[in-house]
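EI: anyone free to look at a 414-residue chain?
SC: sure, send it
EI:
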Amino acid sequence: MNKELWLFTQSFPFGRGEAFLENELPTLAQRFARVSLFPLHGGEGMRPLPGNVQVERLLPDPYARATPAQLLRRSGDVRRLVSSLWQDMGMAMFSKRWRGELQSTVRGHVHRLAVLERELLPRYDPKRVVLYSYWTHEWATLLALLQATHPEVRFISRAHGFDLYEHQHASGVIPFRALQLRAVAKLFCVSLAGSAHMQARHPAYRGKYELARLGTADHGINPRPGKEGLHVASCSHVIPRKRVLLLAEALSRTTKPVHWTHFGDGSAMPLLKDRVARLPANVTVDLKGAADNAAIMRWYQENPVDVFVLTSELEGGVAVALQEAASFGIPLIATDSGGVRDIMNEQTGLLLPTQVTAAELARVLDGFKGGPMDNATFRAGVRAYWEEHFRAEATFNRFCDRLLELHAGRNGDQ
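SC: here you go
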């Protein structure tokens, strides 16, 4: 319990992003004497933190770039970055489409690296401090660069979705992937699908990949719905790839009474509101907008829900919203994207093809009441599967066990 954890995030605990870290942080705070958060970006408002968790803003201006003189002084770092890009992209790195963006990214990394060497490295004790990058993204690149000239630096990283799947990037590649994979001690994928992707795409590093699922806290059981009408819940950003409009379109084709509650906001909300305004009389809707996770959990505790629906066409890991709904014993209907199938089976609900149509989804919803998922036994099975595979207390303690084992093995403490 005398170890420290340095956790590198995109913006957490600022703003609303990385909300799933709210489930993981309490366990990290219990298992380490102190946890330091290093967000790359700031944001409005800071979420409450355990007493032994502190926040350090190393990069007050995350968009600062190295000057030409700094690039000359740090030519070795520039070469390492360019070499990785060549391995990742080949001749495409010289194309007019990507050249300017990549040059700016290299300059940004060189500037940030200088800050890390000046502000962070003098305080780093490899025998006491565990380095953990929450995404295999910018921070993983910076830690890999730091390790190139300071071999005592050792870090682990998680891989979720956009930091794992090349097809989620316009260029079709993830910049600096070669550099990251050479340096990282262990890469913890949050889903079986993610782990399989890494093994197929980057087999040379297969010994570094491990499965370490996320998890959600236990907030109790959702009240049992009555027989009257179908209550559908959903929770996601209202953006094109989440396809919330597909669910609205499906509801427009239902013939039985339905009430739909959606949590989340985003760029497609005006389109969603317009579509909701034109839904038939058998469908009522409550668009909750953006909400704190605690408020969503309270809502699940108090409001009976028949089924949770996710219609995303581009997920990364196992959607946390699915895990949360399952924890309450709510049956799931979800499209087959990313790591979603990790939680979808005959015990938890119905997995639909990614390209399911609105008409097909409408038929599923119309047939839900009185069907095989509409009973107390099935709901108990949903919760039981969540308890076995996605209960935060278990998943995150196993993850901490691995972090401490890896750290002890590196320092000869075993």
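EI: The chain has a mean pLDDT of 93.
SC: 👍
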